[in-house]
Amino acid sequence: MFTHNKAFQVGANFIMILLSLTCILPFILLISASITNESSLLMNGYAFFPQEISWDAYKFLLYDSSSIVRGYGITIFVTAVGTTANLLLTILLAYPLSRPDLPGKNTFSFLVYFTMLFNGGLVPSYIMWTQAFHIKNTIWALIVPSLMLNAFYVIMMRTYFTSNIPNEIIEAARIDSAGEMRILFTVVLPMSLPMIATLCLMVGLGYWNNWTNGLYYLTDSSLFSIQNILNRMLQDAQFLASGMAGEAAAELAAQLPTTGIRMGVAVLGALPIMLIYPFFQKYFVKGITIGAVKG
């Protein structure tokens, strides 16, 4: 029995090491390609250790450093405000749906499920947000559409409340004359930190990586997030490389490390989240397992 368990442990560790490498090695290759000389990259292909180091891609991306700093600032603000608002709305909707005595519970649950299957489409959404809510060219264009509330997160939070918060604790709080809001914020939420951290990470990733809202609802470049700024830089580099910019830009285009720029864009966009993720990992694994599997 001991030998069998040891062999299983060794095999499981080996498999997990392989899975970890499949996640880590692409990032190493990405960073290596972003600092590799363009000619060496085209001649020798991608390598984990650059044969000829060049910082030209980052010089191009960081040429207008003020825009990069402003883009990071806007993205951090949008991620912080949007994540907080999303968590608050998700909790305030999920908690009532988790209570068996909620009047009209089935109707509200159906409406939540319905939004996971159907939506009005891009054109009606654009008309609604720009003409009814007038969020075009405002910071709210990066916060409200598509990301403020997600039915999947509501269901995850509701499942966690139902499966992991004993009803006896809630009833005891009611006997002590606690109202619903007090029960939620002083009893339920302190017991739900793993799921809250999980949703915080998932929602934060959504806000940080989102660039479509800026593409649809913003024309004022001063409001661009870091993803929109990097996307525009990438488009500019591709435009110059295509030769459509005229003969004056042909010489400049020939010197642009277009492949390195694409890799550098991915590095600058993902690096902050990569640095933050280890601090949320243990909560993420525990919360996603309990919230999505149990129940």
What is the number of beta strands? Answer: 0
- Give average pLDDT, whole number: 80
Largest sheet: none
Are there runs of 5+ residues with pLDDT below 50, and where? 291-295
- The CATH superfamily of the domain at 65-235 is identified as MetI-like
Distance between the termini: 33 Å
The top-level CATH class of the domain at 65-235 is: Mainly Alpha
* Secondary structure: helix percent: over 70%
Which descriptor suits the 3D outline? globular
User: Multimeric state of these chains?
Assistant: single chain
In CATH, the architecture of the domain at 65-235 is Orthogonal Bundle
Number of helices: 14
Stated plainly, the CATH topology of the domain at 65-235 is called MetI-like fold
Rounded Rg? 24 Å
Q: What is the H/E string?
A: HHHHHHHHHHHHHH
- Strand share of the residues? under 5%
Structural class, judged by helices and strands? mainly alpha
How would you describe this structure in keywords?
single chain, 295 residues, MetI-like fold, 14 helices, 0% strand
Structure explained in plain terms:
This protein has 295 residues and is mainly α. It has a domain of 171 residues: Orthogonal Bundle (MetI-like fold). It contains 14 helices and no strands. Helix 4 packs across helix 7, helix 8 packs across helix 9 and helix 12 runs antiparallel to helix 14. It is globular, with a radius of gyration of 24 Å.
